[in-house]
Amino acid sequence: MGESTDSVYDIVIIGSGIGGSTLLNRLADSGARILMIERGQPLADSADARDSQAIFFDGRFRPQEQWLDGNGELFNPGNYYYLGGNSKFYGAVMLRYREEDFGELKFDEGISPAWPFDYAQLAPYYQQAEALYRVRGNEGEDSCEPSGAKGYVGPAVADETDIAGVRERLHRVGVRPFSLPLALDIDRWLARGNTPWDAFPDTGCGKMDAEAAALRPVLEHPNVTLMTGARVRRLHTEADGKRICAVELERDGEVERIHAGLFVLSAGAINSAAILLRSANAQCPTGLANSSDQVGRNFMNHNCSALLAVNPLRRNDSVYQKTLAINDFYLSDGEGGGPLGNIQLLGKVDGCMLKANAKAAPLFAMNWLARHSVDWYVMSEDLPSPDSRVRLDAAGRIVLDWRRSNMQAHRKLLKKAKAVMRAAGYPIVLSQPFDRRTPSHQCGTVRIGNDPASAPLDPYCRSFDHSNLFVMDASFLPTSAAVNPALTIAAQALRVADHIKLTELTQ
């Protein structure tokens, strides 16, 4: 395998997910020579993109790779490699962390630590991120809505008829459902096909993912270069180990080294940690940015369960469904106890989706269940732990040793959710936890902090060990909170980009 060198850029961004693409969007007008490197290719449109059997049962879009779990068992992860990263399959939910999530929160099983800055520092960037991702939402409905002006571009996506009925019944039993803020052009999505968007791949049909909202609009800048189909192997440092000098990648069977003045790692919380660990050298024997021994540690992924509320006498003919959430139990259990989490609608499930998780069940039974169910995603915070981690085995393979935490709160939230659904007229309530194969909310492996002894990154996501290295993806999150992380990643990316402009590009 040959090796070639060079091309010099001012900035190299590795990964085109929410973090990398949003950062590029803000930096594109700086005039800096910027290269974005993406392991995958653009996702082409096809009939499979709207076929639930192809997506959920056949695994048509899943990666051809194996990771190891903490017990040494191989599994195929739900980690997607396309232009736009995992956001190509996300549910387009753009919720802010609550203001309280930036402070210390106490749970029965531990502490969710305070961030190195408060909500007010990120609030204006939340507004800008909502505008960039063309989020539609309503103000004043959420029971613990964060303060500050919103960047919504229009009212929330409307409830379908059957979901409007669910909203009304929930109000009658005393909870406060609110409209999910969604990065979605619903008319464009449905024009391509009458399907949900949650976990369906976006092929340029109305979902505002990282590619559509942030990346594509700036690719015409002459100073921006996009390289796809390039798998980053490692980063190289200068002789003293203090600065990054090159990224080593493999493309079309050739190994290349690309040099730059500044490097941004945005490959996702699992792969960014793996790249840093894989880049160990004589000066940095435990990996780059890892003098704290925290790279790969504190992996969080949310505690999530699917909940099906079923009424055998009432059909749910919704197409997309995903417009409601409940935060009544987010900050407390309503009985003097601690925080529990968020409840939000899933995209409408069908029989093929259900059968993918119950292969022995007959399809006709799964179809009947899907037609009579309202489908919810019950989500609780996963607490950071140094023992929950990403590491590499002797062969260099990724080991995801996820240690679940805070399950007591999650069980309480499930109990609350089931009681609410039964009171709202759904006598049969079924639940099943999501398994380890779907790290869709992966975060925390290269966290920010004020102390280089306990955190690899400073509050602007710069490595304490290497002054020209930033990590800008869900890795930086010091806590997982109990809401979808995409908007918080985008807001921090805009904040970090402004910091890079001020500290790096004006010298």
UniProtKB/TrEMBL annotation:
Domain Glucose-methanol-choline oxidoreductase C-terminal residue range list: 398-493
Cofactor: FAD
InterPro entries with a match to the protein in the record: FAD/NAD-bd_sf, GMC_OxRdtase_N, GMC_OxRtase_C, P2Ox-like
Domain Glucose-methanol-choline oxidoreductase N-terminal residue range list: 207-303
Gene Ontology terms, MF aspect: flavin adenine dinucleotide binding; oxidoreductase activity, acting on CH-OH group of donors
Swiss-Prot/TrEMBL keywords: FAD, Flavoprotein, Oxidoreductase
Organism domain of life: Bacteria
Similarity remark: Belongs to the GMC oxidoreductase family.
Protein name in the entry: GMC family oxidoreductase
Organism whose genome encodes this protein: Marinobacterium aestuarii
